[in-house]
């Protein structure tokens, strides 16, 4: 195991990962954030350098953690050889197996390789698989002509909005998610539409892997073009900062799939896999 903490080498890694799109997108997004201030206190672990076969991004060991917070305790994975990834998992002190955590990646063997090691350590593992999406370059500002007057208005989220997002996110509704969303809002780009009272009615945020997520419009405000406006605006905001505008969508979320098709987003050939791993002592407490 090698922890890569040299800023020059981390910039080199960013360039190398760019040559392995789309499978490297999650790790690439995490490394980009590390190289731009590291607001989520991440670090990079590899099997070797510079000719690595597997790379994992993880929370820095000195960062404060909650053992039930799989949202923050998240690893992104890219490998050139799945055996090298599995060997890295098996090494001492690469993964904190004593807490609930998640692993994200865009490679098909990720689940089986992770499960083999998790089973040996008696952790439960839950897989969710998504369509992976990439937004084409947005060269012009989206049409906002239908936002007449002072409201509704297009703006960004604040930490004060975190409770609303926690209550409306299918993955949320708990203390760990609330803290996580507040951290995302404070660290990364977001977009929202606010009503005449200043309340968010449609929004999307960016996660620690530079992925667009939690795109949501309140039921009473749907079919007004807000979701499309928010998605295009956030994609453009990320692209203007040099980030790839990527996202994920469940196969049965037809409304979001139709929206993505309408803005000519590219559905990638690989799928996004999110694994949530739970040690048995936490199986009754974890929010999955």
From TrEMBL:
Designated name of the protein: Glycine N-acyltransferase-like protein
Signal peptide: none
Domain Glycine N-acyltransferase N-terminal: 1-189
GO biological process: lipid metabolic process
Keywords: Acyltransferase, Lipid metabolism, Transferase
GO molecular function: glycine N-acyltransferase activity
One GO location term (cellular component): mitochondrion
Entry function: Catalyzes the conjugation of long-chain fatty acyl-CoA thioester and glycine to produce long-chain N-(fatty acyl)glycine, an intermediate in the primary fatty acid amide biosynthetic pathway.
Native species: Marmota marmota marmota (Alpine marmot)
Catalytic activity: an acyl-CoA + glycine = an N-acylglycine + CoA + H(+)
Family: Belongs to the glycine N-acyltransferase family.
UniProt keyword annotation of Lipid metabolism present: yes
Pathway(s) served: Lipid metabolism
Entry keyword Acyltransferase: yes
Glycine N-acyltransferase C-terminal domain location: 192-279
InterPro entries xrefs: Acyl_CoA_acyltransferase (IPR016181), Glycine_N-acyltransferase (IPR010313), Glycine_N-acyltransferase_C (IPR013652), Glycine_N-acyltransferase_N (IPR015938)
Enzyme Commission no: 2.3.1.-
């Amino acid at each position: 195991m090698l922890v890569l903490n040299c800023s020059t080498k981390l910039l080199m890694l960013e360039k190398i990962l760019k040559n392995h799109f789309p499978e490297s997108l999650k790790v690439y997004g995490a490394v980009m954030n590390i190289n731009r201030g590291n607001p989520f206190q991440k670090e990079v672990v590899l099997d070797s350098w510079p000719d690595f076969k597997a790379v994992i991004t993880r929370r820095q060991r000195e960062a404060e953690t909650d053992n039930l917070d799989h949202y923050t305790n998240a690893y992104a994975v890219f490998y050139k050889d799945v055996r090298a990834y599995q060997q890295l998992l098996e090494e001492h002190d690469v993964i904190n197996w004593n807490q609930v955590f998640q692993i994200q990646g865009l490679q098909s063997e990720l689940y089986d390789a992770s499960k083999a090691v998790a089973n040996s350590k008696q952790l439960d593992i839950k897989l969710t698989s998504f369509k992976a999406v990439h937004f084409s370059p947005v060269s012009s500002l989206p049409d906002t002509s239908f936002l007449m007057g002072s409201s509704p208005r297009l703006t960004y989220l604040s930490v004060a909005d975190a409770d609303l997002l926690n209550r409306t996110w299918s993955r949320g509704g708990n203390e760990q998610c609330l803290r996580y969303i507040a951290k995302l809002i404070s660290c990364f780009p977001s977009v929202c539409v606010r009503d005449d009272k200043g309340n968010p009615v449609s929004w999307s945020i960016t996660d620690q892997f530079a992925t667009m997520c939690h795109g949501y419009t309140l039921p009473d405000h749907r079919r007004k073009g807000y979701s499309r406006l928010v998605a295009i605006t956030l994609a453009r905001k990320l692209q203007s900062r040099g980030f790839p505008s990527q996202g994920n969508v469940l196969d049965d979320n037809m409304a979001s799939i139709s929206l993505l098709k309408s803005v000519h987003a590219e559905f990638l050939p690989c799928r996004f896999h999110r694994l949530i791993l739970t040690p048995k002592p936490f199986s009754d407490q974890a929010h999955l």
